[in-house]
Amino acid sequence: MPIDTLQNVLRAELPGMPHLSRRIALKTVLSAFGGLVAVEGAERLATGPEPAIFALNHNTTFESLLVPCALLYLRGGRPLHFLVDWMYLHLPLLGWVIRQCDPIPVYRKPSRFRLREVYRVSRAKEPVLDLCLARLAAGGSLGIFPEGTRNADPERLLRGRSGVGELVLRSAAPVVPVGIHYPAWTRLGRAPRLGRLVLRVGEPLDFTAERNEALAAPGGRARREVARRAVSRVMASLEELSGKTRWNNEPFRRLEPAGDRP
Predict the structure, then answer these.
(1) Distance from chain centroid for Cα 35
(2) pTM of the entire structure?
């Protein structure tokens, strides 16, 4: 079904989002582009557990703006913090809109300019994983792209980053997989830069068994194996929901931000 009518978007109260500037930014984006979004399984967003880790496949730059806004709206404005490459936050206008979603900046990628590089290094001291866990502990949900970067391949997912497994093991939150599918994939052979997309919301994944295993293996190879299995479960769900297949089950080493350098 479509995300909502324009009239409903404009009238929505969004009780989980008390800041006026954030409501204005979200409604502006959805008024302009919300008609491009259809949702399957939207009821799982309304009744799902809180906080949660939302894991999505990643195809285009514009998703990094439109999809978080759509999920925030469907969840009544309840906090949902996406990992975002720090450079996006400094873009004119677009950066302001993204900041209204209260993202978690990731300062991994260096700047070409010395002054901005000094700024990046000064902000990169706190590990991203710790920031994620702090947001979850405060009651906010997370949004992550386990592939770690944009993936324009309409048929295959990239390998999941191993940092996703460590995040899952160190938190108590379930993972809600959300597949992003473009109807135009078949016709174009790629995801359109701006086009209709479908969000397919899956059942929450419980990782209690993996977390118990990790407690019994606090470090070393055994824990890494548990983390790999956790990543594999997440990617298997995204495989089913996105309509893509996986390259393989071996994850990358690190958790990366959503999107590449602009």
Answers:
(1) 21
(2) 0.89
